[in-house]
Structure formats: structure tokens, C-alpha cells
Design a protein that fits this description.
By secondary structure, the protein is mainly beta. It has four domains: 95 residues, Immunoglobulin-like, CATH 2.60.40; 98 residues, Sandwich (Immunoglobulin-like), CATH 2.60.40.650; 91 residues, no CATH class; 117 residues, Sandwich (Immunoglobulin-like). 6% of the residues lie in helices and 47% in strands. The protein is built from two helices and 33 strands. A hairpin with a 2-residue loop joins strand 28 and strand 29. The radius of gyration is 34 Å and the shape is extended. The termini are far apart.
């Protein structure tokens, strides 16, 4: 080898060695990093995310943490910035268990923590897939949400509910601070079902109360279930509802209008306008919105109005519109058939958008939230033709259609630039604008619903299909 070649190779190796030295850690030696995990055992389930939580620390600086579950193809490296050095880190990492894993399987989560000096430690966490994450289910028998307790009849408040939980129930608690109720029932043996049944005494003065029911299960990481029930204790009915559904129907399934809120009230005289869509339509009056009990007004064997959950329905003999008056205190009611004289919104299915009002043909669609395809823009209401309502061929005062609800709903039924429009406010009331303001929010399960806007009744009915 000639001298020139030798010098070239020597220079190359010197530069390579210098480069290697630069790659080596320039940090001084330090103590091992530390890790404190939130729990040594994590519960998961197939097709569900779980969280890995740990507090990492190092006296000089953390370099990275590696999270591994080989059987679940998890190998995640989290690198930390070294400018500036990070001495503490709260690890919070979520991972979803594949749907094809079994609930009886278990794994080991391996954490490897490395600091900038090259020190590493390992920490293992057990992962079980037999987790139970559902809160105890509380099913009210009585009182139902919005229940009315008529103090002139009785000041007794029966509380009856059932709690169910797969992992067993630890305790249930019934509370109402205003009434001085705070009752804890600790259950032995963690039963999967428990029935609570007790009657409390209310003050004789009218008031509104909130009854809070809580249940805790016996799972290793406990789940809590809570239910608030609003109760009205009164000497007079604040509202009466007209119900045209058979007894036993779940009155909380539909989104709006079932049962129907009254139209006018004077003292305890309640007046309704109602459309019977068939001959021999059966109706009841209810003292509460969510259930047939405790106050259901129907007919006894003599044909008299009674407050009795076993009563028979009132029969409206022929199809058409009725004015109905009822007094739940005197138990007197009247039924009168009538012919509407309000405006008929005809041929709305063939509406036309036009800037010149004289050339415009009215249509009725919807603006709002919680309705698939709807926004608060009337142009969107026009172009989303699936939201347009059509005339009911059997009733000129009704506009009908179908909507897909995605959750809590609010709505204004509208034409071009809010003309015409009916704002859906509380209790299913749809006032034609200009009118009462304040769109109400209606909780609803996702799904397809039938929609009826009755322009004579100024009511909207949105019922599960």
C-alpha cells in the first residue's frame, strides 16, 4: 500500500471514530428511572378501550417508554424531548382490545422505561378481559319521572324500584335532602337483583322534589348508577294529558306529543282540541306525562269519569276534530265535535323556492338539531328534500313525513326564509310564528320517526316508527 492510500484510510477511520463518539450518550451516569402504575391489574373487554396510567420519573431525564403486549400486536414507543430534559411524565395510553379476543383471556402489559443515561427498568401490569363496565340498572315502578302526588287525596309517597347488575349489588341509596330522606341499604352476598319498596310521608304543603336513587355494584372497579326522579306534590293538577294509546304502552318511547298536553286551563278546568283519526277512538286523561299511573281518568261501569288505573276509555264515536273539557277535581267532562276554520296549508309537497314572493309556493321542511340532514339554514331545509313534509290526504290540517333522529332534538318547521314556520316549544306545542319563542330540546333515542304537524291543533307528534 502506498503512503497516500495509507493516509487516506487513516483519515477515514479517524473521522468514523470521531462520529461514533458523537453518537454515544453525552449525559453523565444517573440513577435508574422510576415508575408508579395506577393499578397492577387492568380490566378490559373485547372491542373496548382500556387505559394504561403510570407516573414516570428520572433524576436526570427520561428518554422513552415502550409499551408491549405481543399477543395483541401492541408495540408502542413514546420518545421524549431532551431539550429541555423531561424528568417526570404522566403516562396515559389507550388501547382497544381486538373484537376477536375472548373474555376469559388475560395478558401481561410490559412497560420499559429508559432514561437519557441509558438506564432501563421494566414494569408489568396484568390485563384481564373479563371486565364489567355497566352501571347498575335502576328500573322505577313508582314514582315515574314527573309524577304528580295529589295532596288532597293522600300525602303518601310510595317508592318502588328494582336494581339489576351482573356483578352483584353492593348497596343502594335513596336521598331527598328537602324531605330529610337519606336511606342506605347495604346488601349482603352481592345479589344480582334487589327490589326496594317503601312509603314516605310528604308535607301537606305543595312543593316540587327531586328523589335521587344511587346503586353501586361489587365489581373490582365499582360502577355507580344514579337516577333522579322529579316529583310534584300539589293540591291541584298543574297539567292534564290526553292519551290515545292502549294501557301498558311505554309513554317514554316517542319523542314528542304522546301523551298530548292540554290547550287551555282555567282553575282545574282543562280544555283540549283533538283529532280522532278513526271512528270509535279511545282516549284517557292522565295526571302525569310518563305513565298511566297513578292518575288515569277514564270511565267506570256506570259511564262516570273516575280516577282509576283500571277505568275504561272514553270513546269518540266518529273521525274528526273535537273540543274536550275535563275537570279532574269535579270529575266532569264534555266532548264536542267541531269543524276547523283555520288556514289550510295545501299542496306543500309541490313547493317552490323563489326570491319573488308572489311567485313562491309554500313548502314545509325543518330546521334544527338532532335531525339527520337538518341545520338552522332554511336553504338547507329546502335542498334536503327528505326533510319536506307532505299533506296528509286524509286530513288537510296535517303535514306528515319521516325523520331520522340522531339524539336530543330541537326543531322549527319552516318554509323559505321562515315563512311559514311553526316553532316547536315545550310539551309538543308548535306555535305559528310570530309566536312564543324558545325552541325546546327533546331527548330521543336514535332511529326513524313518523312526524305529524297538526296546524289546527298547533301540536307536533313525533313517534317511533
Amino acid at each position: 500500500m502506498n503512503k497516500l492510500s495509507y493516509l487516506f484510510l487513516l483519515t477515514f477511520f479517524v473521522m468514523l471514530f470521531a462520529g461514533c463518539q458523537e453518537d454515544e450518550s453525552s449525559y453523565p451516569s444517573s440513577d435508574d428511572p422510576t415508575v408508579v402504575v395506577a393499578t397492577n391489574e387492568i380490566y378490559g373487554a373485547p372491542n373496548r378501550k382500556f387505559e394504561i396510567k403510570a407516573a414516570l420519573a428520572d433524576d436526570l431525564g427520561l428518554k422513552n417508554v415502550r409499551i408491549q403486549i405481543p399477543e395483541l400486536d401492541l408495540d408502542k414507543m413514546i420518545n421524549f424531548s431532551t431539550d429541555p430534559l423531561l424528568t417526570t411524565y404522566d403516562l396515559s395510553y389507550f388501547f382497544e382490545v381486538p373484537s376477536d379476543r375472548g373474555v376469559s383471556e388475560s395478558f401481561v402489559i410490559k412497560l420499559t422505561i429508559t432514561d437519557v443515561s441509558g438506564n432501563s427498568i421494566e414494569q408489568e401490569i396484568n390485563l384481564r378481559l373479563d371486565g364489567e363496565f355497566s352501571a347498575p340498572a335502576i328500573s322505577m315502578i313508582t314514582p315515574k319521572e314527573g309524577a304528580v302526588i295529589l295532596l288532597s287525596s293522600s300525602n303518601q309517597l310510595p317508592v318502588n324500584f328494582v336494581v339489576n347488575d351482573d356483578s352483584g349489588i353492593d348497596y343502594i341509596q335513596v336521598k331527598c335532602e328537602v324531605l330529610g330522606i337519606d336511606e342506605m341499604v347495604q346488601l349482603e352476598g352481592a345479589p344480582q337483583s334487589y327490589t326496594f319498596n317503601k312509603t314516605y310521608t310528604l308535607p301537606i304543603t305543595a312543593a316540587e322534589y327531586v328523589l335521587t336513587i344511587t346503586a353501586k355494584d361489587k365489581f373490582a372497579i365499582p360502577n355507580m348508577g344514579t337516577l333522579n326522579i322529579n316529583i310534584v306534590a300539589t293540591n291541584e293538577y298543574p297539567a292534564i294529558y290526553l292519551c290515545d294509546q292502549p294501557k301498558g304502552t311505554n309513554l317514554t318511547t316517542d319523542a314528542v306529543g304522546v301523551p298530548m298536553y292540554f290547550h287551555e286551563k282555567s282553575g282545574q278546568d282543562f280544555e283540549f282540541k283533538y283529532y280522532a283519526d278513526t271512528d270509535n277512538k279511545e282516549v284517557y286523561f292522565l295526571g302525569q306525562e310518563a305513565d298511566f299511573a297513578p292518575h288515569c281518568f277514564g270511565l267506570n261501569a256506570s259511564g262516570d269519569l273516575v280516577d282509576d288505573v283500571t277505568s275504561s276509555p272514553i270513546i269518540l264515536p266518529t273521525k274528526g276534530y273535537y273540543k274536550i273539557k275535563v275537570n279532574p277535581s269535579t270529575l266532569v267532562y264534555t266532548v264536542t265535535k267541531y269543524t276547523p276554520t283555520s288556514k289550510v296549508w295545501a299542496d306543500v309537497a309541490n313547493g317552490l323556492w323563489h326570491d319573488t314572493e308572489s311567485l313562491r309556493r309554500p313548502f314545509v321542511s325543518v330546521c334544527g338539531g338532532g335531525i339527520q340532514g337538518a341545520t338552522w339554514d332554511t336553504w338547507d331545509a329546502w335542498v334536503q328534500t327528505s326533510l319536506h313534509l307532505a299533506n296528509n290526504p286524509n286530513n288537510p290540517y296535517q303535514l306528515v313525513g319521516e325523520y331520522t333522529l340522531t339524539g336530543t332534538m330541537e326543531a322549527t318547521f319552516t318554509g323559505q326564509w321562515w315563512s311559514p314556520s311553526w316553532r316547536l316549544i315545550k310539551n309538543g306545542i308548535a306555535t305559528m310564528s310570530p309566536g312564543e319563542n324558545g325552541n325546546a330540546k327533546y331527548p330521543a333515542a336514535a332511529g326513524v320517526y313518523k312526524v305529524i304537524l297538526d296546524t289546527e291543533l298547533e301540536r307536533v307528534f313525533i313517534t317511533k316508527k
